[in-house]
Amino acid sequence: MKFRLGACAAVVLLAACSGQKSDSQMAALHGSAGGDSLKSQARAGMTPSGRDVHHSIANAPDRGTLMAYQNQGKPVKREGAFTYYPVSMSEEHALKGVVTGHMTVPLPDGSEVKLKYERHDEGIDGNWTWVGRVEGGDPMQEAIITFGEEAVFASIPQGNGKPPLSIRTRGTGLYAVQMDPTKVRSPNVGHNDMAIPEASGLVDTAVSQALAAKAQVAQNAVAMAAPPTGVNTIDVAVGYTAGFRNQAALKQQSVTTALTFLLQVANQGLSNSKVNGYLRLVNAQEVSYTDTNANQTALYELTGSNGASNVTIPATLTPLRTARDQYGADVALLVRGFQQPEHQGCGIAWLIGANGATVTPAQDAKWGYGVVSFGDDLGADGNSYYCAAESMVHEVGHLLGSAHDQANSNNTPGRYPYSYGYKNTAGNFYTIMAYGDAGQTPYRLFSNPNLTTCGTPASACGVANSADNARSLNQTIPVVAQFRATVVPFRGTANDFDGDGRSDVLWRNSSTAGNVIWKTANSSTQQHVYSLNAPWTVVGIGDFDGDGKADILWRNLTTGANAIWKSGSATTQQTISSVATYWKVVGIGDFDGDGKSDILWRNGSNNTIWKGGVASSQQAVGKLDAVWRVAGIADFNGDGRSDILWRNPTTGANVIWRSASSSSTQAVTSVATYWFVAGVGDFNGDGNADILWRNSSSAGSNVIWRSAIATQQQSVSSVASYWKVVDIGDYDGDGNADILWRNASNSTIWKSANATTQQAVSTIDRAWMPQPAR
Known about the structure:
About 15% of the residues lie in helices and about 30% in strands. The chain is α+β, with helices and mostly antiparallel strands. Strands 1, 2, 3, 4, 5, 6, 7, 8, 9 and 10 form a 10-stranded antiparallel β-sheet that branches.
């Protein structure tokens, strides 16, 4: 299955491409198109990824509600606890709901539920997800609706005390499915879904200390999750069986929609729990493995071990194991359509870190496998045995060192003494890792005693030092995220040398040639950079190898020699071809969306691009008269590819070449020549870059054009002309670009370009300048 790895790099995350501005930027992962930009898409009937909604399975016109019931509102099928109502759906209504902030969903009993928009996320293969909550309802119950071209999957709270209404795709039909909880039974009763790996050996002290340090950083970052990076993201490879696909009579592309939905549910659970982490789907493929044996048997065969001795790996599972290595997946999951009683539960995974064992990539990566059952099946007793959408993230929780609630943990703790799920009789609820009792309400979050919104009456969602999966996950995710080196690139943060999702500042001393990096623009977190004398000059910063960390591009202005220092380190130097000195580096950007930065060279009216910084992979660029200047390089339309903003300083004319192509232009309103482009960045976090204009002839006037559109302006406070914009970056990792200002003696950051949210920056001698110099 081919994934589009552009704007979201196959991210089925919350954030990287979302519009949420709450706990996780997201969320993190954080919508892909927002505000006025999305309004134009809605009017044109286009999804955030550019797919035409009129040609999708949910192609009904917007008549004020998400869907309409067919068959005169009567069900067409009853399967045990589940009643199927055929519906026509309006993706157009959902798209407009991103703009208006509201959605209306009719229920089978004739009532309606009103949803308040929270965020949206762009996924792979044109899938996207709408997330909201019931207006005036339980704040811990959200609607998650994933749209694909040929399928829709959703969970929608009804707000009437009933279980969520689900939307399922069966073949070419869409159905609203009502569940009768009195006829539902848990498939997990009497079965254990945790497998215990063989005991780990002694761990090197230095390794233990390094991993503990990373874990502590994550634990301190629970208030605002960082954007997805290689440090906080678990890359997942999925092998699904014919049973999974056939359960809903899905086409191959529709399977991706179903998997996207499951990953969205997982990431929403992490976000709800204040966990700085994400799951990201990097590969999915069908495997010819049986659907009829026990999940435990499947796990042992997928792993090649039963925890104590080797087990033969069947050839049908080899493609999934190969994909794990090929795509750098930290964990691999086998997903099957649920069968009762054959599967003996809704899944199983290794409890990595069981009994408090230290987790290290070297020793534990081999256990990064799990098996997940999805859907429901009618038992011989006439009841429905049902595996909820949270089954996937539950099993991944085991791989991340989290155990069940203490009553159901078989006396086996997870990585830490507090790595337990939680259920509460008084509040009548249970969390993701717990096995709830009959009648208890499931909450889509991991136990966290710092949250006090669970149950009725509202109470703590965990117990300090006893049931705190969130704390445990914040410590184990950075470790498990190292099980495999990242292969599929992230949509990176500008000038982020350590890959933590926050921009850093590279300073260079014009007198001494000294260099230093201030991580997140903080002078107390410095990284020394080797000195390099003139005529060597920093001409660009970008991620040329796609590892999620910024590299420095040096150029010798006398000889034309060039070099790249990976992650800002002289010890990881990469020499690149020399170029005659009359060629100038005028910009760095990812023009083809492959996750690696490219170099834009200019010589008079001639232009060329070196993909990944490699001279042998050149891309021709159209000519443009030498009077035109590159005013900015950024992704103005959110397609995951950098665009060139050209400005004519003589006439004030402007134009954007999308993906650096002169044949794909975006008109930009002309501006008087006393205005200049002070910087470009995504100041509102909608996935589209904006232009920061500054007036050189007035009292420091500034204005932002969102998505480079003059009619979509954001006012910015004026500031005296002796203040200069010296850098643009996301210094706090919230997904919004910030402005670094400097005058003769002081510096300050305006978060999200807002003068009321300033962050002080330490004073530094004027001989030091942020690089590359503006």
